[in-house]
Write a structure and sequence with these properties.
This protein has 758 residues and is of the alpha/beta class. Among the domains are: 69 residues, no CATH class; 105 residues, OB fold (Dihydrolipoamide Acetyltransferase, E2P); 34 residues, no CATH class; 241 residues, Metallo-beta-lactamase, Chain A (4-Layer Sandwich). Helix content is 47%, strand content 15%. The strands form 4 sheets. Strands 14-13-12-11-10-9-22-23 form an 8-stranded mixed sheet. Strands 15-16-17-18-19-20-21 form a 7-stranded mixed sheet. The protein has a 5-stranded mixed barrel with strand order 1-2-3-5-4. Helix 14 packs across helix 16. The radius of gyration is 29 Å and the shape is globular. The two termini are 45 Å apart.
């Protein structure tokens, strides 16, 4: 069963990395060849044939499932324009100070699942199951596509959202019918409100709420950062551990009670009865947690074990593991896009292996061994998903797991049960105990967090490196008698010393990050890093410094910035600065508006030129009689044979001034489109003087300014200039040495579930 499940997973994974849903002629031929091989092998090599069948089923099931998810009922005419919809709220709304986020399943004028934000406080609180008429504006699911960044398009596909949008202010927004039927989400929302009303003074109310109903909206940033820095986040919300623990406790309790009745034992074994109640407990807890994909997975894994007891079938742990894996993937093959899927099944596999080792040792020794085993074996996969980790996570988890398992989680659940039983005084005491356990645990975790060596930052690793490191860990964990550990060491050496792309002397890489409607460049030479503008910051606190620039820098192991240039004070250029100032050392800052920067900064014109690693940098601003957009810092970067000009938001006046001042020295191979391609910029005189081969435009997808202007695109085309736009290309990398090399992220990493460029 395990081997078939792994082949099913392999087929799903192969399809998940495709760039298109449709099969090429060659791929169709390979599929037909695979069918022929299966038919040929079925009699003589049945095991191999069945393995290939499961592989093919996984590939086909992922394709069929994906096509159904991507098949939208929303006509293009409904996008980017106000529309009235009727629908039902699905799941629990997430209410914050700035907005309310919720999911609505619409019935009119189309059937779809849409993720919405409501920035005004509704007159009537939103509840799961309520039917509303809303005026909304929707757009295709879109994300900033950059190295190291969060892929919102993949996440939306995984969540099966047809579109995203927001509610517009309108008198037509009204509740049509409140939820009058039974709804798990309504119960969950009621539990959340009951907690807020009853115990708002508890410091860890957010964690208690998350442990009961799987909702993280009340978790504060400080607590989340603490759990994240010690690799204990998996304990702070409902996980497979919690569902397994509670269902296991119920199993043991009812098995014990059943054994006290001799007559009962003659009719049914205690293990069967305990398994029934354990299965019900797992289902109940999963439902209260919203039956989300992680809880579905945990329930399936628990149910496979309990059902084997109920039907009195004796399977090995690996057979049960394979059955659970197959059921999870059959239910939802998109689970492979979930970090939790990989971590949970990977860790369970390590535990199954670990528990089979050292059976003759003391239980405490085996517990420590398994925890250390988990911590070491998960290093490659944590590096892959998070690019960071905690050195002391084994110690943190050894202390945190028992506290969460035997105090915090059971007392939180007991507290809400007592609350519904109207035993409020007793429930308050129980909740206080759960809260106190977290207070004491947090003191210990804060001590670990404060240790300088605790945090381990990785660079983002390649797929080949991940495979090599994972194989080396797994081989290293095999019994020593097999004498394979030398191979593990060799694989580690190969993984660490794989050739990597490196910037050479006299070469420069300019990365125009995809920050939507804004601008942010990262310029790297052999030994130096320069940031030119930092993208926008929004009222919600979301900003491009945290969301885009820092993940990119971490992906390339950049731990300091030599120079940061803020071209001017518009939010879409300066918005991410405050975040960078908090998170990374910056040696110097220059700007056209140094007075608006909360740090020591100088004027663009005060630093004229410099040379880094054989690459020349020249600031072209020589006058100070411009303001606003025209005052933007302008930077020319030149190698021995190639050059690029970064322009900020300059317009025609500044362009003409630059031509008058520099003349033919403005000539460059690559030009960053002034003012995102606005019709107020890219004048004929400026383009003729610069005479670029390429123009890079940084603009947002379907932005309200309609940048770049069609008249400007026509002008670029008339000059024979090749244009690239971040809204279509994602992150754009330009490498200048003797030649010009340009890479577009969306093209290089294309996936079938990404938005298609128009």
């Amino acid at each position: 069963m395990l081997f078939f499940a792994l082949n099913f997973l392999l087929g799903i994974m192969l399809f998940s990395v495709r760039d298109t849903l449709s099969l090429s002629t060659l791929e169709i031929g390979l599929v037909l060849s695979l069918i022929l091989v299966i038919l040929t092998l079925f009699r003589r090599q049945k095991f191999i044939a069945l393995s290939l069948v499961f592989f093919a089923l996984g590939f086909g099931w992922m394709g069929l499932f994906s096509s159904q998810v991507l098949q939208s009922n929303i006509d293009e005419s409904y996008f980017n324009t106000p529309i009235n919809v009727t629908g039902t709220i699905d799941g629990m709304p997430n209410i914050s100070d700035n907005n309310t986020k919720f999911i609505v399943k619409t019935t009119q004028p189309f059937n779809a699942t849409i993720k919405l934000s409501w920035y005004e406080k509704p007159n009537i609180p939103l509840h799961s199951g309520d039917q509303w008429r809303l005026l909304i504006n929707i757009k295709h699911n879109n994300s900033y596509q950059n190295e190291g960044g969060f892929d919102y398009e993949k996440w939306s596909f995984f969540k099966q959202f047809d579109a995203s949008g927001y509610v517009k202010s309108s008198d037509t927004n009204q509740l049509l019918a409140p939820n009058s039927g039974f709804s798990i989400d309504a119960i969950r929302q009621h539990i959340k409100q009951k907690l807020l009303d009853a115990i708002p003074q508890l410091a860890f109310i957010g964690v208690i709420n998350a442990l009961i109903i799987g909702d993280r909206s009340l978790l504060n940033d400080q607590h989340w950062a603490l759990f994240k820095s010690t690799n204990t986040t998996h304990l702070s919300v409902i996980s497979g551990l919690h569902i397994g623990l509670i269902s296991g406790f119920v199993f043991l309790l009812f098995s014990f009670l059943w054994r006290q009745c001799q007559r009962c034992m003659l009719k049914l074994p205690d293990a069967v009865v305990g398994a029934y109640f354990g299965l019900l407990a797992a289902l109940a807890y999963a439902l209260i947690a919203g039956f989300s994909i992680p809880t579905q997975r945990a329930f399936i894994m628990a149910s496979v074990v309990f059902l084997s007891l109920i039907f009195r079938r004796h399977y090995s742990a690996w057979q049960l593991y394979g059955g659970a894996l197959l059921m999870v993937l059959a239910l939802n093959p998109l689970s492979v896009f979930s970090v939790g899927f990989w971590l949970s099944f990977y860790v369970v596999a390590v535990i199954i292996y670990g528990t089979s080792q050292h059976q003759n040792k003391h239980w405490l020794w085996r517990l420590l061994y398994i925890q250390l085993l988990i911590s070491l074996s998960t290093l490659p996969i944590i590096a892959w998903f998070f690019a960071s980790g905690s050195v002391l996570s084994p110690i943190a988890n050894i202390v945190a797991i028992p506290i969460f398992s035997f105090i915090t989680t059971p007392f939180s659940l007991l507290g809400i049960i007592l609350s519904y039983a109207q035993l409020n005084d007793l429930s308050d005491i129980i909740f206080a105990i759960a809260n106190q356990s977290l207070i004491h645990l947090s003191v210990f975790l804060q001590y670990l967090q404060a240790l300088e060596f605790n945090q381990w930052q990785y660079t983002l690793i390649s797929t080949s490196t991940l495979i090599l490191l994972t194989m080396s860990v797994l081989i290293g964990l095999l019994p020593g008698a097999l004498k394979l550990r030398k191979i593990a060491l060799i694989l580690i050496v190969v993984a660490v010393f794989q050739p990597t792309e490196k910037i050479t002397q006299g070469e420069v890489m300019i990365t125009t990050l995809d920050v939507g409607q804004g601008l942010a460049h990262v310029v790297r030479t052999l030994n130096h890093v320069l940031i030119f503008d930092t993208g926008a910051r929004y009222q919600s606190g979301f900003n491009m410094g945290d969301a885009v620039i820092m993940p990119y820098l971490q992906a390339h192991q950049v731990d300091a910035i030599d120079l940061l240039i803020i071209s001017h004070s518009d939010n879409d250029h300066i918005g991410g600065l405050s975040s960078l100032l908090k998170r990374i050392p910056i040696d110097a800052i220059i700007s056209s508006v140094p007075e608006k920067i909360p740090s020591v900064a100088s004027f663009c014109r005060d630093k004229t030129s410099w040379r880094w690693d054989g690459v020349n940098f020249q600031l072209l601003n020589t006058t100070n009689h411009f303001s606003d957009n025209n005052a933007s810092c302008v930077l020319k970067i030149s190698t021995l044979k190639r050059s690029i000009i970064l322009t900020g938001d300059i317009e025609k006046k500044a362009e003409h001034d630059l031509v008058d001042t520099w003349g033919q020295q403005l000539q460059a191979d690559v030009l960053i489109s002034p003012h995102h391609g606005s019709k107020t910029s890219s004048s004929e005189l400026f383009l003729t003087t610069v005479s670029p081969k390429f123009v890079l435009i940084s603009s947002g997808y379907k932005n309200r300014y309609r940048h770049p202007a069609s008249i400007i695109l026509d002008r670029y085309n008339a000059h024979g200039i090749t244009t690239l736009n971040t809204s279509c290309a994602g992150q754009i990398d330009v490498t200048l040495n003797n030649d010009i090399t340009i890479s577009r992220y969306r093209q290089a990493k294309k996936r079938y579930y990404w938005r298609q460029c128009e």
